[in-house]
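To: structure desk
From: M.T.
Subject: fold request, one chain
Message: Could you run this one when you get a chance? Sequence is below, nothing fancy, just the single chain.
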Amino acid sequence: MLKHEKKQYKKVVLAYSGGLDTSTIVPWLKENYGCEVICFVADIGQDREDLVDVEQKAIASGASKCIVQDLREEFVRNYVFESYKTGCLYEGEYLLGTAIARPVIAKAMVECALAEGADAISHGATGKGNDQVRFESAVAALAPTLDVIAPWRIWDMQSREELLAYLEARNIPCKATLKKIYSRDENALHTSTEGGELEHTWNAASENVWVLTKSPKEAPDEAETFELTIEKGIVTELNGKKLSAFECLEALNKLGAKHGVGRIDLTENRMVGMKSRGCYETPGGTIIWKALRAVEQLVLDKSTRVYRDHLGIEFAQLVYDGRWFTKLREVMMAAANCIAEDVNGKVVVRLYKGNIDIIQKDSPNSLFNFDFVTFGADEVYDQADAEGFIRLYSLPSRIRAINELARKNK
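Reply: Done. Structure tokens follow.
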């Protein structure tokens, strides 16, 4: 079953989901590498049904044991909330729901492999996708002595039919069928959907694509408002109630999903060069992202705001490209944390039929000063000062025009 020979291993830790791919990888690793396989499951807030009987499934597939680790709080606190301080948004729309989850999974899996004395890890990412780069770059940074086995780049199986036949021939139970239409990724931050009608960009996404959020058409006819408290770029309270990072995101997911917010249909550039289409549902994350930007409107001066915009674009690319465990990420987060020192305040959010509106905002660090911007009479601003400012501001254009006129008149 190997396209080319590989060395043997004693123990391999596999990133395991219980789905068809990873259920097939367990016996395949044992047969082709003669190794013990330990399955590692990261609980990052995915559908709870995915975790039901996951240990029994792993053992039934041939694993020696299955380790399930609850990473939900760590994921939201140290990865989602930290990233959102930067304003990260990939290609103008994507809030990085899948990409942000990969470093927390990789870190925990590496720690598991080292604790178990494994000499390699394995994953079910394909040779066409982004996740292979994200996982393997993380391993290279955290534990370069560990080898990585990527079966989809090595074995000769190419289809779900072949994987199902492989398991059937070995009497390994699997609930997967050939009727799978979509490929989905779920965690506390989002649900992504690919495949099916989405493989053709002229096809509109049907309601079958969306599984987390209500259709805006079916959302309540009454708007809903609530208050968020933000401290140093982190949402800490909902309607005056202190919440942990995961609790906050979970609550906002429910509110956002109820009102049909956080849907995007994106055709993006993958790392390996091809374009892919995905539909992403990120209700709570979208609310948080907009709330943070609203407070920034109050507290960031013009130059800092421009820099933060650039930082958000660059940080989104870094996360998407799997470069979390790098010095560059530390440098960029240091800048984001410095900017976030003043991002404190409260916002009132209104949700209605797929829309998110920030209708009230305030901050103790606000640079908004009524005395300067009022249209009424004031005693702090001499409007005549603007004339000199405009003459200096437009001086380059004035000089260019004068020089061109002089050349024409020669």
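Reply (cont.): The longest helix spans residues 302-320. Let me know if you need anything else for the meeting.
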